[in-house]
Amino acid sequence: MYKKNPAKECNLDELVLSARRGDALAVGDIIAKMSSSVEIKANKFVTDELEKVDLVQEGMIGLVNAISSFDPKNGAGFNTYAQMCIDNALISAVRKMRRKKKIPSSQIVPFDDVDCPDDSHNIEDTFILKEQLKNITKSAKENLSSLEYRVFLLYIDGLSNREIAEILKIDIKAVSNALYRIRIKSANFL
Questions:
Q1: How many CB atoms lie within 10 A of CB 88?
Q2: Which of 69, 57, 63, 58 is nearest to 85 (CA)?
Q3: Structural domains of the chain in order of their starting residue, each with its CATH number
Q4: Rounded distance, CA 42 to CA 60, Å?
Q5: pLDDT tens digit string along 101-152?
Q6: Tens of pLDDT along 7-56?
Q7: Are 164 and 151 in contact (CB under 8 A)?
Q8: Contacts of 37 (CB under 8 A, 6+ apart)
């Protein structure tokens, strides 16, 4: 087991091996040693939509994943591997945020008729919102074809047309056509 010894400083690779054997102190030391690196990397990705705190958290998740998946037999040192995992986690967070923001206005169905509760978060409002969502999903299932319904579910999960096409193994044009039909049909059941 790893024990912090001020006289002898362990390198990251040794700390990771101890951490992988279940040593919580080693995990804490790795995080302490690399937290400034995570913060520096997170600063590069800060936007109006993504705050530094959220990005640091994503970077830390990448670091923890690096600890659990590091294999010294692959030839790279832990620091190199961890930096790559942190970068990937940050890039992934940015892509996820951008994907949610890039919905063409022509594909947005107005929900003016649906009453959404304010931010009071009481149980009654939450229940009503869940019921409304359940009704919309039920109506979609009843009024859309099988393909349209699958496209609908993937689309409301925030996937792009290209990602939906890849998942369903259909042409991207078929996805666009399905979304067009969904918009037309949804006017009748929303």
A1: 15
A2: 63
A3: 12-101 (1.10.1740.10), 105-189 (1.10.10)
A4: 10
A5: 555 555 555 544 445 445 545 677 677 777 777 777 788 888 888 888 888 8
A6: 335 688 888 888 888 888 888 888 888 989 899 988 888 876 678 888 88
A7: yes
A8: 83, 86
Q: CB count, 10 Å around CB of 100?
A: 10
| CA dist., res. 43 & res. 36, Å (int) | 11
C-alpha torsion sign, points 104, 105, 111, 117: positive
DSSP code string of 156-185:
HTT--HHHHHHHHT--HHHHHHHHHHHHHH
Q: Which residues contact 165 (CB under 8 A, 6 or more apart)?
A: 171, 172, 174, 175
* Helix H or strand E encompassing 135: helix 123-143
Q: Which residues contact 62 (CB under 8 A, 6 or more apart)?
A: 38, 82, 85, 86, 87, 88, 89, 90
The answer to whether 19 and 67 are in contact (CB under 8 A) is yes
Q: Which two tokens stand for residue 114?
A: 């649906």
CB distance 172 to 161 below 8 Å: yes
Task: Write the DSSP string, 107-122.
Answer: GPPP-TTS----TT--
Burial class (CB in 10 A: 0-12, 13-18, 19+), 12: buried
pTM of the model: 0.48
Residue 161 near residue 175, CB atoms below 8 Å = yes
